[in-house]
UniProtKB/TrEMBL annotation:
Belongs to the fatty acid desaturase type 2 family. The keyword Cell cycle does not apply. One of its GO terms (cellular component) is chloroplast. This is Acyl-[acyl-carrier-protein] desaturase. It comes from Sorghum bicolor (Sorghum). Its cofactor is Fe cation; Fe(2+). InterPro entries: Fatty_acid_desaturase-2 (IPR005067), Ferritin-like_SF (IPR009078), RNR-like (IPR012348).
Amino acid sequence: MPGLMTMMALAPSPPMSVRPCFCNKMRGTTMLLVKNRSSSQAHLLGRRSWRAPAATTVATAAATAFHVDEQEREEMMMRRLAEDGWVDEHMLPLLTPVEEAWQPADLLPSFVVSADEQRSQVAELQARAAGVPDDLLVCLVGSMVTEEGLPGYMSMANRVAGGGDATGCDDHGWARWLRGWTAEENRHGDLLNRYLYLCGRVDMRRVETTVHHLLGRGMRAMLRPSSAYHSLIYGSFQERATFVSHARTARQAGLHGDACLAKLCGVIAADERRHEAAYTRAAARAFEDDQDGMVRALAAVMRAKITMPGELMDDGRDERLFDHFSAVAQRSGVYTAADYADMVEHFVRRWKVAELGAGLSGEGRRAQDYVCGLPRKIRRMEELAQDRAAQMGAQSVCFSWVFDRPVRIH
Ligand SMILES: [Fe+2]
Ligand SMILES: [Fe+2]
């Protein structure tokens, strides 16, 4: 899942709207929920005064009750998908059995051979890595740092209502998926980390400091961190973005003569492809269940400029490290605004968003229009950004990751 969602920030962000037609049932629903919901939600709702509520209080309570209602529906769907075996049938087969899975040790110099052979293998890896340009190394480090933020992503996924692993060894499908997905992802950071260490081209202390900062700083939560709909959409986008960026890195590494790096990134990309298929499939299932809720969730996630998992990376030197890394990725073609527009288009097609019809509310229709028109807006914004960059001329930034060598950002 961890991936490069740089260009999602290009998506325009109009103010969030509250669904307007809810006030009539607000009071009854809210009181019922106070009795039935968890203590934190009851506490939240219990703070409301029922004495002559002001208009803003009514609107806020309506929004809160609406979200609690949505949350309950999403949670029930998640539980149902686990209980009726849907997750077992449609998601778990997309994980590779451990006995068949690659491990980082399969793809890097071996230490079970003689000392001479070990030195020879490391020397060969370093000779090939010598041809990798700094901009590709920066992209690789940024991807590796993002992959190493995995503890935060597992923690976030575990907060999804109805989909979490409450005990750490729950037996339901979502919990088994989450642990299996985490185990597969864990190899990505390990593999890239070891390659970067062995290749000798990067300042590992600065890279490790960046990972340390990222884990300490965490990631900004999604719009509704416990929302299953938001999580499934977010997961689909992230996995696809990660597939694109690792696959492009593999291709460019091959062109620069580093077959080892090309292979590493290629196997990671293949994992991301399977993960994308799983989340996309689950989101499609949710569309079947609640097309109005899902299209509104999709628009909300897009409008909120999906929070990038590595956005808070920090090497202790460059306050705009993530922006600069993103700019290098854009310039080098590893991940671009056009890729983001393509992704939105892909998911609109995959989830048949344009064809949703009779069951949509007014807000659902507005969300549908917004999402279907988004790729065109993103492409237009990309053109404007490229025009601005062209007017500014060449600009470079020094990256601590590559011993403070300057790397072109545009
Ligand atoms: Fe993944
Ligand atoms: Fe990954």
